[in-house]
Design goal:
This is ABC transporter ATP-binding protein. GO terms for molecular function: ATP binding. With 260 residues, this protein is α/β, with parallel strands linked by helices. It folds into 2 domains: 1-84 and 164-260, 3-Layer(aba) Sandwich (Rossmann fold), CATH 3.40.50.300; 92-158, no CATH class. The chain has helices at residues 3-6, 52-59, 99-103, 105-109, 115-127, 143-156, 173-190, 201-207, 241-255, and strands spanning 10-21, 24-36, 41-45, 67-72, 75-76, 85-87, 161-165, 193-198, 210-214, 221-226. The strands form 2 sheets. It has a 6-stranded mixed β-sheet with strand order 6-7-8-3-9-10, with helices on both faces. Helix 5 (115-127) crosses helix 6. The chain binds adenosine-5'-triphosphate and magnesium ion.
């Protein structure tokens, strides 16, 4: 175990997984090793089908891997749920509940939806630019606004580690950029630990402290990149020649791998 591993909020070692498809065992994840320290913004960057969402489900305890272990805050958590807060690719808001009641769902389930939780939820919604929409229903919001509600809901969960599975992939390019900038502003103030999934090299470089680059299926980690850009980051960063150089290299790296 290395120095950095010993303080990890999340540590995954020697993890492999396979699914049965057409009666054959198909390897999906191979020898995954990674660690996340408290307060880091880490991204998994990899092609479609390489096993990213499967890895999230394993971290969330919904799938038990064939081999390997998930350690959360030093405790063996393989196959155990409830340790992380999870924002799926689709916002998955409950259509019959208002924005505020959607955000308060987790607190309600855990019996802590008192006035303190309500005022925290209102404050978060205000920071997300949704103060006037508390009493609206999901279908009355745009896609980007629904994503922000889902994000606020994940923020309201007490778990330190947030998993975000391609949260912006369904949005148009402009809205996506706005959402990235919004996320980075919120994160730079609050520093929750985030594990983020994306196919987008730009998104990974703009947001992350470190990036784990994955190969096509079966997903392996082919590179770990410490992103050298200082914070706070602004949209000007994408014009930096260093940004372009990293982007080009990562593109070549991903292209050099056989695709699924
Ligand atoms: N429950 C399952 N049973 C069988 N095969 C599965 C199951 N879930 C995922 N797979 C397969 O595992 C592989 C990885 O799927 P996964 O959803 O993890 O990929 P991904 O990297 O998240 O892709 P994308 O970027 O398109 O979301 C795919 O080939 C998929 O068909
Ligand atoms: Mg996926």
């Amino acid at each position: 175990m290395t120095e950095s591993d010993s303080h990890a909020l999340l540590r995954i070692g020697q993890l492999s997984h396979q699914f049965q498809m057409d009666r054959e065992n198909t390897p999906v994840l191979q020898d995954i090793q990674l660690h996340i320290q408290k307060g880091e913004f880490i991204t998994l960057l990899g092609p479609s089908g390489c096993g990213k969402s499967t890895l999230f489900q394993i971290i969330g305890g919904l799938i038990r891997p064939v081999t390997g272990e998930v350690m959360i805050q030093g405790e063996a958590s393989t196959g155990k749920s409830g340790h992380i807060s999870y924002m799926p690719q689709q916002p998955a808001l409950l259509p019959w509940r208002s924005v505020l009641d959607n955000v308060l769902l987790a607190a309600e389930i855990s019996g802590t939806a008192g006035s303190e939780a309500r005022s925290r939820a209102s404050e978060w919604l205000k920071q997300a630019g949704l103060a006037e929409y508390e009493q609206h229903y999901p279908h009355q919001l745009s896609g980007g606004m629904q994503q922000r509600v889902a994000f606020v809901r994940a923020l309201m969960s007490p778990q330190e580690l947030m998993l975000l599975d391609e949260p912006f992939s369904a949005l148009d390019a402009m809205t996506r950029q706005e959402m990235q900038q919004w996320l980075i502003r919120i994160w730079e103030v609050h520093r929750r630990t985030i594990l983020f999934i994306t196919h987008s090299i730009d998104e990974a470089l703009f947001l992350s402290d470190r990036i784990y680059v994955m190969s096509a299926r079966p997903g392996r980690i082919i590179e770990e990149l410490k992103v050298p850009f200082s914070r706070p980051r602004t949209d000007e960063l994408v014009l930096d020649p260093d940004f372009a150089a990293h982007k080009h290299r990562l593109y070549q790296r991903l292209k050099g791998e056989p695709t699924a």
